[in-house]
Amino acid sequence: MVEGSMTQGAGQGPEMRTPTVRDFRVPAYVHEAGPYAQPPGPHPAPPGPYDRPAEPYDRSAEPYDQAADPYTGPAEPYVRSGSYAGGPPHGEAGVPAADPEGYTPTERDLPVINRGDTVQMPVDPETGQLPQPEEGPGPLYVVGDVHGYLDELVSALHEKGLIDLEGRWAAGTSRLWFLGDFTDRGPDGIGVIDLVMRLSAEAAAVGGYCKALMGNHELLLLGARRFGDTPVNSGAGTATFQAAWLLNGGQKTDMERLQDHHLQWMARLDAMELADGHLLVHSDTTAYLDYGDSIEAVNDTIRETLTRNDADECWDLFRKFTKRFAFRDDGGAQAVRSLLETYGGSRIVHGHSPIPYLRGEVGSEDGDNSPPLAIEEPHVYADKLAIAMDGGVTMAGKLLVQQLPLDS
Fold it and tell me: Is the pLDDT assigned to residue 143 strictly greater than 80?
């Protein structure tokens, strides 16, 4: 079993080690000078929800943050020696450096996961919108990791009847939660943020809501913009947010288009929330327990940490929220219960860890060249107490949008 969506250089603790397939290419701009400061205005308007980047985007060339994989990577963050510790993957004079020991990027071919029984809300064929209850809140939906795949997000939201053909909110009093990780790896992370911000306003205007949680990639992008190449104490030496952002799929176009209102929006996101008995979080980790014994305390503590603007504190926060797989294998169900007993709820719903890796259904080093196959449904596990929502869109998987509750 191997893991995807790993965050390089973030210091995740290993439990097991298993082989993975090498399929990693570093984008050319990694070798350019950084950090990328926002150029003086005026800035062009971001593209609409159906606009594609000016240049074709090659999904096969995207980096995948696997180096500190808790199964294949070191227990502590990989730290390069020399004056640019923790820097991008190139050595002196731009000569490519060797991969760290244990670095095994993952294979993009995914298995089929059988469709389960789910609660579906049919769209009205005449209005193209979801039917609404006569009173009370509308149905609850969650969205897994988007990672800059704006077109896939628009398609998935429209398929569920949450937006119309123009990309406008069409779900009335429905409630929609994004589980974090809007940027990095995919072509248009800023476009994703702009869409979510706009849908939030449109949903609120008609009695629904569209809200979002903080993912580890939001912490990473905030750190790269705020601290750049400032050295931070990684626990095993020094690293930098800028280097970690590049290693983990940071897109130069996102950094160039990042504006103050995007930064403020990300910094104010909650880390966890309770909705209809579902404890919503981004990461499948128990690290939330380090920040408070209530949902309000956790959210306040994390916001205060970001407000202090201390590079080492922010790095420690980022590092903890890259941890994963606490709910899998022996003791996983008990780890879920520890969070539910502390924060409430009867089930945890999370993103962060792609379903193929949670299930252990990936290619092997023996040369499995089967075509990529889409994940179709969320994954219910840990004694049916946890629901995983990351379908692996960065790996040619599916961007999942799911109505809750989910029948197991």
Answer: yes
